[in-house]
Structures are given as structure tokens and as C-alpha cells.
Amino acid sequence: MTPFWFELRLAARALLRSPAFALTAVAMLAAGLGACLYMYGAVHAFLLRPMPLPEPERLVHLEYGQSGGFGNIEPTLADFVEFERTASGVDDLAAFYRGTVNFSGDGERPERFDGAYMTASGFAAFGVAPLLGRTYARSDEEPGAERVVVIGFQLWRNRFAGDPGVVGREIRINGRPSTIIGVMPEGFRFPFDDQLWVPVQRHPPSVARAQGVNVDVFGRLARGRSIDEAQAALQAQLTRLNEEYPGQVGGDLALVKPYQEEFVGDQTRRILTVLLVATVLVLLIACANVAHLLLARGIARTRDLAVRNALGASRSRLALGLAAEALLIAALALPIAVIGAQLGGDATMAAVRHGADPPPFWMTEWRLELSFLGVAFALALASGLFAGLLPGLRLARMATAQVMREGGDSGGMRTIGRVLIVAEIAMSVALLVAAGLMVRGVLAMQSFDPGVRIDHILTARLGVFESTHPDDAAVLEFQRRLREELAALPGVRSATLSSALPMGNQGSSTAIAAEGQVIADPARTPLAFDVRVSEDYFRTFEIPLVAGRRFDARDRPDSEPVVIVSRHYAERTWPGEDPIGRTLRLDRADRTEAPVLTVVGVVGDVAQNASAVIDRWAVDRPAVYRPLAQVPTRFVSIALATEGPPEALANALRDTVARVDADTPVYWVTSLRKALDDAMVDHRLVGILLVIFGLFSLALAASGLYAMLAFAVNQRTREIGVRRALGASGQAIVAMVAAQGFRQLAIGMVLGLLLALGFGSALSAFLFEVSGTDPASYAVAVLAFALVALIASVLPARRALAVQPMEALRHA
Amino acid sequence: MIVQLRQLDRIHVQAGLRVPVLREIHLDIAEGEFLSIVGPSGSGKTTLLNVLGLMDHDWSGEYWLDGSAVHQAGARQRQALQRSAVGFIFQHYHLLDDLTVAENLELPLSYRDLPSTARRERVQAALARFGLEGKKGLYPAQLSGGQQQLVAVARAVIARPRLLLADEPTGALHSSQGREIMALLTELNREGMTIVQVTHNPEFAALAARTVELRDGVLGAA
Question: With contacts defined as CB-CB under 8 Å, which chain B residues touch A313?
């Protein structure tokens, strides 16, 4: 048996004989490791795990930026066609845009799916062959080509019961007859999280440029080419495009980046990093606590160590023995931590998948992979060594014959103990501050008044296509009938349709220029949310009318184009003047193509977009409302103001839509309250995690403080006895004990607050209406910690008070 | 000579004061000798034993152990020398409570990189020799004081040291148990082991071939 195994056996024996110690240490380390592994799993899923594709590192995303302005601008389909013609550096250049695909015509109820309108080259770029049939070809994209569709594995299994004869079946896609030509294999849901793939319609260049459809462009880096080279090639093409079509290209800077990075923003990276750092701190606190326990236990066993030393054990061998205990503790904690991380990860990913803006499918899968287990093992090993080696090496130094004889000097031990406690306090205070900041942010978010009624509103979305509703009149007629039928449902107080819901993700912004308004730089024309609404929109959402009138039957397709503006916009644009009757254009200040709109009303400010809540744009961001009758829109959201619980009317809503048009599926049926909660899921999740980490670190640090003071009282029993015998008051004894922890507490808190500033700065972009240096959060964290530290000190102090002088001196 | 001490001084520093514990010690111990060190409490007996056992290095002078110059040796060499040459018996047995009798015996062997089969054989032989076979699975707390010291003696000699140091080996035992332990030490000495014991007991001191006395750190004939 090697020395390591021998020591491991002895360590196991020692732990078995101290089950309370073993359980406490294992629980602490399991929680610390579990938290760390949980966050590593998330970081791995979002940032590290390669996409499940052949050679994922070659897949790149191409986009634009503007000099000195915005980035992340998607090219138009027309631009893509130009790139395709002259592409260099990227193979299988492809494009897609995502959209609703209404699936019907197979005898089942129509169903709405997220689908990808993708070029045929996309399949080649992803490098995955179909399971059945074929993928579509370039010729399927030409105008007039027979309509085809490729379906995903899940849809094939669920809707067609895995029928191998599905290829060649006729179905309806968005109301048009289409043929299923292929089934993709299980696990293929690219480019984002898609179940259906429909060819992009390639119109003649002039039409395509006029349509201005934006697409995600991607492809595979040509072998031997770097991202920089591909970017240089794209830049050359983009420069040429800008020269050829001045003012018609979205950007002037080319950007090529790994495909994966398109879907993980800086904010997500930052939050994941903050949370990972938080859990590393929790793990360090847990390790420090276990080290502390081992230290206290080691001091009690100094004699044994000295005996071993006398019997020939070297210092390193003694340290190995102590480290073996810590390693064993880590080994026992490891499976608990892995299971805990797995359960937490599954639950979190489920929450993220159901959030308002979920990431692509390959990022929301939590799998126990070999690399994850490798990291788990390495972390456990590192934790065991960290927790074991520090006390091990220190105790081994103490273990000399003199110690055995004279009892030794545990001053060095106490120093290490103090340093560990200071570190624990600092890390815990920092985590508490971070938790406090997030909690205040989430609370502010939840109590935020978006300017609309939130409760008792049922919402849904639907879209109609040219195949069934060929023109604006048909669309408007469908929407009129639908609204009337919905409004007539029992329990519905009012019904409305709109292009976007308040605080939803469907809204769009547009430039807005009032006539007569001086805008120095037309490129920086102000932006406003542009919402197209039916009658009763303002009544349904209880948005107050400030001036003028609401939309009504007067606002017809052929009547004067009108607009209702938000109060903030009106006050800022026409201060002290009556806005009614004023005119504006929804375009850049230097353009005149857009129609002139007459302001007929002013309504209360509303947070029109979910990101208004999150990005602190708040309600003062301008919004303009136009009547659906004048700006027909094929995709609309439904909102019903209900008398009772909104969910109770969900089926009635679905049935009504089916009654009006059996081929139009309705989706995202949910209450506005829930939709809003979903929009905040990321923030709440981060808040909850930081609170859990903060409280856990608080409990650990407090127990560490308690253990340190209790140990100190134990060590000083004789001294306390002598002091009491010499007349020391109870107060003086308590003060003596408390003073022992006070310095560490003070130093730890100061260091913790400094560390917290770093957290605050990293979180600031994610905090809603709370600054990263919010004094209240810092104060509450310090007070909370001080209170818990006080409680942790009271028990040892009481024990010190209970020391009877004669008793203490007799046993000393 | 297995041990040669020349002009050996040991000074303790306590509260900034230098207190001499051993002064100019000059001592030769022959191979196979049985030596008793006597003297009043605080005279430096245990310190001298610790120096002999290479547990204490803060001294000046010369110390030759089995032909090796300890005063010139580094920490590693000292440890190697200690492992190969020295065995210890303590007054309070100092058996490890968490380990069984057999494991306590195996412990010093595990520090000497012996293969596990060789370790097991030696433990088995020691258990047989010291009549401990029936107790090999017991923990120290399950043994009497005499039995514990018996295990401690077995543990001290299991690595076959050439110099056995015993610090008050009978100090915690009643007289009959003490005699048994002393008989065992005498037997080991007859087999050729060099033994140095520190004792307060004149009867047991007399069992050694030679006795020296320490008074205030100064060595003299008893």
C-alpha cells in the first residue's frame, strides 16, 4: 500500500470516528462545489460548449456596424445576394430569417411553429444531411418554384408519428400548399431553435432591395482562412456596395465573428462571469471553513501528529495525512455537488427556455459531459488540497517533540485562522452587497409602473398570410370580425388588436420628425416606438387620454392619416403648445417620402418594450400610435381585458380564432402579467442566485466566526478562570471575547466593501434603477453581516461567562 | 560507539531570557549498552533524550550517531538517520487512538517505505512476539495501561532500530506492569539493542549496565 493509500485509510477511519465533523465538512464543501459546478455548467452551455455540428469552429456570422455608431446590424437579403456573387473567404454562404410558420392541411388542428426561412446553402453550411428525403436546392428559392418544406425530427415524430412515408406529403404552410421533401435528424434545430425550414424567396434584385428584408448571414470559413481575412474580404465588398447603393446599405463596417457569439451578448457574458465569480467565492468560503475545521481539529490532535513525527513521519507525510482527510471530504462532496448542480441546471434551463427571449437550443441543454465531470473532479481535488494543505503544512510544522512535551504554541495556527476568517467575511460581505443590489433592482422592476393595466389582461398573437388573406382589405376584415367576436365573449370587458403589446418583444422603433422641428443631424433623428392599434386599445390597457381623441370609426384607410403621440413626446416636441393638429413624419428629418401624419390625440406614457424595463429607457421613451385601419399589419397581438382570471378565457379565445379562420393558429396565449414575469425571468434568476449565494456565504462565514471564537474561548478557559478569580466582571469577559472577533470583522468588512465595488460595477448594466454603488445595498449588507456576526459571537461569549474559576483552574 | 556527544549545549529562550538546559555534555554510549539517565525534574533528561533521538536540533557541539556526524547533517539526512537508527517509547504510550493495535504497529513501517507484504509480516511477527495477537483489532482505549505500553514498546522496536530511547517507560504504570516492561527492555538489550532510558525509579535505573545523572543540565556519574 503506498503512503497515500495508507494515509487515506487512516483519514477514512478518523472521519468515521467523527461523523458530526465529517458530515458538516462534507455538507459545506458539497454546497460550495455544487454552486460552482452549477455556474460552470451554465458558462459551459452558453460560452464554451461547441455547437453540435461538424467543425463548429469554422461556422461564422457576418454582419455590419456603423462607423462611430451601432453594431450588430443584419444585412438585407439583397446585400446577401451581392455577397453570394462575389464571396471570398467563406464557403457555403447562407442566409436566414426566422418567422412564424403556420402548419396545417394534414387533418390536425393548425399549429404555429418557429421556422427558418433559409437559403439552401444553409444545410451545407451546417454540414448535416437529412434523415429522410432531401433538403431543398437553390432552384427551390426561385419565384414560382413549387413550394417545399423540410421538417424537423420532433415535428415528424409528434405530428406524423414518425411515419417514414411522410416525404412527398402535401400540407399547407402559411395557408399555401407545400410538399414535405425531407426530415432532418434528431438534434438538428439550427439555425436557432427551429422545427421547419422553408426556402427563402429570391426576388429580382430591384424588388429585393426595395423590400429590405434583413437576414442573418453565415457560412463556413474557407479552409486555411482566418476570421480576419474573411472580415477583410467582406469589408471590401461592403465598401463597394456602399458606393453602388449610397444610403441604402445598413452599415459601413464589416464584422465576421464565430456563429456562437451572435447569440451571446456582452451583458450575458458579464452576468455569467459575475455569477461564476460569486460561486467561486462561495466555494472559497466553504474551503476556508473546512480548512478552519481541520485546523481546529488538528490542534486538538497535535499530540498524535507529534507521535507520528517521532515514529519517523516526515513533515510532508504529516501534511499528506491531513490533506488526505480533506481530499476524502472533497471526494464525498463531489457526487452530491454534481447531482445538485445537475438538478439546479435542469430547472434553470427549463426556466430560461420558457423565458420571453430564450437563447438558441444548443445553449439551453444541460448535459453531464465528460468535460463537465473532468472540471468537477479537478475542482473537488483543488478544493480538497486548498482546504487540507494549508492546515496540514502548518500543523506538520508544529508537530515536534517539544510540542508533545510542552503543549506547543498555537499562535501560528491562530494567525491562519484569523486570515481565513477575514477572507470569509470579505467574500461574504461582497456577495451580500451583490445580492442586495440585484434584489433592489428586481423589486424596482416589479414595482415599476409601465403606464398600462397589467392584471386581468389575456394576450395572444396570430398572423395571416397572403395565401388566405391576399390584400389589406381581407386582413382588415378578418381583424374586424375577430375583434368583434372576441369583444362579445362573456367575461370580456374589451378587446383590441395591436402590432405589439406593451412591454412585449414585437415592437419596432422608427425615426420621428415633427414638421417644423429643427434637427441638426438628420442621422440622429429621434426614435419612437411605432405601435399600430385597433379601436379600444387605450381603453383595454387603461392608458389615459391626455388630449384630443382616441381612434374610432373615423379613421379609415382612405381618411386623413392620423397619429396619437405619447405625453412625454408631445411635451418635449411642442412645449407649452397644443399638439392636436400638429403634423409629423415617421422618417429621418431629411427625408420626405413618408406620409405626413396629423396628431389627433395625446395619451399617457407607456413602457412599450420589455427592454424598456430592462435598459432603463423607462416610460419617457417616445411612442406613436397609428390606426391598424390605416397601416394594415398581418401579425397582430390580441389583448382582452377580462372580468375574471384571464387564463380562464384562453380556450374561448382559441375557439373564437378557429371560428373566424380555421387555418390561422393562435399562439403565445398568456396573461400579460405572466408575459411580463417571463420577460423578467433572467433578472429574477440572477437575483435569486445571488441571494442564495449571499445567504449561503453569510451562514458559512458566521459559522466560521463562531467556530473561531468558540475555539478561542476553549483555549483560554484557564485564562478566563484566572481573570474571573481576580475579579473580572461578566461584561469584561464578554468584551474580551467580542474584541477577539472585532478586528477580523472590521478588516473583513472593509475588504468586502472594496470587493463589492467590483461586483457593483460589473452588475451595473444589469441593474434596473439602482446604481452599482447604491449606499442602501451596501449598508444593509454590512448591517446584516454585523447582526449575524453578533449572534455568532454571543454563544461563545455566553460560554466564556459560564466558566467557573475553580473549575477552570482545576482542569487546566 | 553508537553515540558520541562532545561539548553539547542546548539553550532555551524563554521570554527573551537564555536558559541553558544542557551544558557541555560529553557522553559516549557503546553499541549494545543499556544506559539509564536519572536526575531531578527539570534537569534536562527529556531534552537530552530528544537530542539523542534527533527530535531536537537547536543545540551546539558535536553529535556522532552510528558513525554519522549529526551536527553536520541537514534536515533530510537527520530524518533518514532517525528512521534507520532510532526507536522511541514515551511515558504516556502515545498510541494513536484512531488506530487499532495492528495499525499502530504498522505506522512506523509505513513511514519507511516497506512493501505492504513485508509490513504485514513484521506486524504479525511483532504481535506474536509480544503476545498481542488476540488484541490486534482492538483500539488503545480498549487496553489496560500495561498493555498499551507493551504495544508502544512493540511499535518502537518494529522498525528494528539500533538505538531505543525510552522516556519514563514505566512512569504511568503500577509496579508489576512496570517490572514486566523493564524485563522486556532487558531482554531486548540482551539481544543486542542499545537502550537509553530516562527514569526516576532507582530500582529500574539499576537494571541498566550504567547510570548517569543530570543536574541543572550538567552530566555526571550517578
Answer: 111
For residue B75, give the chain A residue with the closest CA: A314
Q: Is the pLDDT confidence value at B35 over 90?
A: yes
Q: Write the CB contacts of A298 (distance below 8 Å, at least 6 apart in sequence).
A: A305, A322, A391, A392, A395, A413
Q: Which is more confidently placed, B166 or A703?
A: B166
* Structural domains of chain B sorted by starting position, each given as residue range(s) with its CATH number in brackets: 3-96+159-221 (3.40.50.300)
Predicted local distance difference test score (pLDDT) of residue A366: 79
Whether the predicted pLDDT of A577 surpasses 80? yes
Query: For chain B, what is the radius of gyration of the CA atoms?
Result: 17
Q: Which three cell numbers stand for residue A724?
A: 474571573
Outline where chain B has alpha helix (H).
45-52, 75-85, 101-110, 116-129, 145-157, 175-190, 202-205
* CA A588 – CA A590 distance, rounded (Å): 5
Alpha carbons within 13 angstroms on the beta-carbon side of residue A791 total 10
Instruction: Please count the residue pairs, one from chain A and one from chain B, whose beta carbons lie less than 8 angstroms apart.
Output: 61
Tens digits of residue pLDDT in A140-173 = 998 889 999 999 999 999 999 999 999 999 999 8
Give the model confidence (pLDDT) of A19-33 as tens digits. Answer: 988 999 999 999 999
Among left, alpha and beta (phi > 0; psi -120 to 50; other), residue A360 is: beta
pLDDT in tens, A759-806: 898 888 778 888 889 999 999 999 998 888 888 887 887 877 777 666
Lowest-pLDDT range of A667-671, A719-723, B39-43, B68-72: A719-723
CA-CA-CA-CA torsion sign (A341, A347, A349, A351): negative
Whether residue B150 contacts residue B181, with contact meaning beta carbons closer than 8 Å, is answered with yes
Q: Which three cell numbers stand for residue B17?
A: 531570557
Query: Is the distance from CB of A326 to CB of A28 less than 8 angstroms?
Result: no
Closest chain A residue to B87, measured at CA: A311
- Rounded to two decimals, the ipTM of the complex is 0.78
Q: Which residues of A touch B113 (CB under 8 A)?
A: 3
B42, B5, B32: which is closest to B198 by C-alpha? B42
Q: Is the pLDDT of residue A407 over 50?
A: no
Cβ under 8 Å to B: A residues 154-193: none
Q: Is A19 helix (H, G, I), strand (E, B) or coil?
A: helix
Residue bearing cell 381583424: A479
Q: Measure A312 CA to nearest chain B CA, in Å.
A: 5
Cell of A781: 449588507
CB-based contacts of B27, cutoff 8 Å, min separation 6:
B3, B4, B5, B8, B212, B219
**Residues B110, A1: C-beta atoms closer than 8 Å:** yes
pLDDT at A403 over 70: no
Partners of B108 on chain A (C-beta within 8 Å) are 311-312
How many helices (H) does chain B have, and how many strands (E)? 7, 10
Q: Distance between CA atoms of A498 and A629, rounded to whole angstroms? A: 11
Residue A556, pLDDT score: 92
What is the reported pLDDT for A463? 84
Beta bridge partners of B35: B196, B210
User: Which of A150-174 are b and which e, b meaning 16 or more Cβ less than 10 Å from the residue's Cβ?
Assistant: bbbbebbeebbeeeeebbebebbbb
What is the distance between the alpha carbons of residues A307 and A527, in angstroms, rounded to a whole number?
A: 80
Q: Are the C-beta atoms of residues A130 and A182 closer than 8 Å to each other?
A: yes
What's the average model confidence in pLDDT over A474-501? Answer: 95
| Residue where the block lists cell 494515509 | A7
Q: What percent of chain A has pLDDT over 90?
A: 40
pLDDT at A619: 52
For A312, the closest of B82, B95, B97 (CB atoms) is B82
Q: What is the mean pLDDT of chain A?
A: 86
Which phi-psi region, left, alpha or beta, contains residue B219 (left: φ > 0; alpha: ψ -120 to 50)?
A: beta
